[in-house]
Design brief:
By secondary structure, the chain is mainly α. It has helices spanning about 1-10, 25-45, 50, 120-125, 130-155, 155-160, 165-185, 185-195, 205, 210-215, 220-235, 240-245, 250-255, 265-270, 275-300, 310-315, 320-330, 335-355, 360-390, 390-410, 425-440, 455-485; strands at about 55-60, 85-90, 105-110, 115. About 65% of the residues lie in helices and about 5% in strands. The protein has a two-stranded antiparallel sheet with strand order 1-4. Strands 2-3 form a two-stranded antiparallel ribbon.
């Protein structure tokens, strides 16, 4: 009996490399941990939309105010007055006399003090009325902090965004934040609600593990063995523990087929290659544009006609179908065309939305939301596409450069709200123009669907030269056929 059990155990044993191929309980927990972090990270990332959001206010007129000034004063003049100026009282007005709408002249003077409708945002607390640059810089400085984390952590965020599960965790965070803000409008309470749960992420020091492959690549053989044993234990996999314990660094590399890891090239090699440099510049512009439009539309949705919370919520919901549509089109048609046409149509919708009169509320909102849907498609697609444009030797570095360009777009997104003080059509016109330019630039890029990933800069350059030679031969062959005919 003992011999049979021993034989059975031997039979159930799997090779060390097979540990990583089984998607079990361990992987599910790791996915859950990262998705949960992405969910809450998103809410903290966009909280300034309502925490530092605009609200109604008017100029304070001390002669007419009582002890408890209110925004909707019955004596306020019926004519339209800029929020940054105050109507001037008539000369015959006597101090202590009750003000009426007839107590004012047509003249206005600069305002220095304000009465706010509510205290729901930091605009009231910091007294930022008519200081649009300062109020919008709150979001900008918030995103500068995010950019610094990208620089420090490399391109991990892009890998997270590339997965459907992670993307949906982010979209869930955006939508959930919209509903929380709807029911908890006061900014201090809102901050407490979304910043308290992330305290649990301190436990990730112990819960979230590095990939064994990454540990092997970085010479952390002891840690890699420990992680592999943990995965086998959680997933209930039978492995030869003694064999794993006896493996050295070289044995593990051979087991995971990484003994001849990718050829190293520097950023200098990128600068020398016109082909790669062109790809980097176009990719950076597209990533910058996508993020600027994605967050810009989300932020400016609160300026659309109707309830700002509803409009913001609708703009976040449009990301959900965008992810699936992007996956379908890129697998069915290709990488380049869906993204290129996505940019172009998004740009046209943004421009059209800007010129729709305010009276056509649902038409204006519908065009705006379809534009958000299309930029969501581009948001996911351009990340996958840029990964395939670069060779393995410098892919990490160049994706890091693209990630910085992307976060730079999010830094400028809050500042687009300032354009609303000039004209409400300017943000949409800006988004439309940038999207059309991005779509046009993609015509310079190759299709990457079903093509093998290149390992070096030299391989990409040789493949392009070979393609050009084939095209020349094909063209000359057609010319000869025409002459014979």
């Amino acid at each position: 009996m003992g011999a049979e059990n021993f034989g059975s155990n031997q039979k159930d044993e799997i090779e060390i490399i097979e540990i990583m191929k089984k998607f079990g309980k361990y992987q599910k927990f790791q996915y859950f941990y990262v998705c949960l972090a992405a969910f809450f990270m998103t809410m903290t990332n966009i909280n300034y939309v309502f925490v530092a959001g605009d609200l109604n206010y008017r100029c304070r007129i001390p002669e007419c105010e009582n002890q408890y000034a209110v925004y909707n004063a019955t004596w306020w003049p019926n004519k339209t007055i800029d929020r940054c100026t105050r109507p001037q009282l008539k000369e015959e007005y006597v101090v202590g006399q009750s003000c009426t709408s007839e107590s004012f002249t047509d003249a206005v003077v600069e305002c220095t003090d304000w009465v706010y409708e509510t205290n729901n945002t930091v605009i009231t607390t910091l007294n930022l009325a008519c200081q649009h640059w300062k109020s919008n810089l709150i979001g900008t400085f918030h995103n500068i902090g995010t950019l610094l984390t990208v620089v420090l952590s490399g391109w991990l965020a892009d890998r997270i965004l590339a997965g459907v599960l992670f993307a949906y965790a982010i979209y869930m965070g955006e939508s959930t934040f919209a509903y929380i803000a709807m029911f908890v409008p006061y900014w201090k309470d809102l901050i407490r609600i979304i910043y308290t749960p992330p305290i649990i992420f301190i436990s990730y020091i112990f819960l979230l593990k590095e990939s064994p492959r990454w540990q092997i690549l970085n010479g952390r053989t002891k840690d890699a063995k420990s992680t592999l044993l943990n995965i086998a234990k959680v997933n209930n996999i039978n492995i030869n523990k003694q064999k794993l314990a006896n493996m050295n660094d070289e044995d593990l590399k051979k087991q995971f087929k990484i003994e001849n890891y990718e050829q190293k090239e520097s950023f200098r090699d990128v600068l020398k290659s016109k082909v790669i440099l062109k790809r980097v510049l176009v990719a950076c512009f597209c990533r910058f544009t996508t993020t600027l439009i994605y967050y810009g539309l989300m932020l400016n949705s609160v300026y659309l006609p109707g309830n700002k919370y509803t409009n913001f919520s609708l703009s976040t919901v449009m990301s959900f179908p965008g992810e699936l549509i992007s996956m379908y089109l890129m697998n069915r048609i290709g990488r380049k065309l869906p993204i290129m046409y996505g940019y172009l149509i998004c740009g046209l919708l943004c421009v059209a939305s800007a010129w729709i009169p305010e009276g056509y509320v649902w038409l204006k909102i519908s065009l705006f939301l379809f534009g958000k849907l299309l930029v969501s498609i581009c948001f996911t697609g351009i990340i996958t596409y840029t990964m395939e444009l670069f060779p393995s030797s410098v892919r990490g570095t160049l994706l890091g450069v693209c990630a910085v360009a992307s976060r730079t777009g999010s830094i400028f997104a809050p500042l687009t709200q300032i354009l609303n003080t000039v004209s409400i059509i300017l943000p949409s016109m800006l988004f439309g123009g940038l999207a059309i330019i991005a779509g046009a630039l993609l015509t310079l890029m190759p299709e990457t669907k079903d093509l093998p990933l290149m390992d070096t800069v030299g391989q990409i350059e040789r493949s392009i030269k070979l393609r050009e030679i084939r095209n020349d031969i094909s063209t000359k062959g057609e010319e000869r056929s025409d002459l014979i005919a």
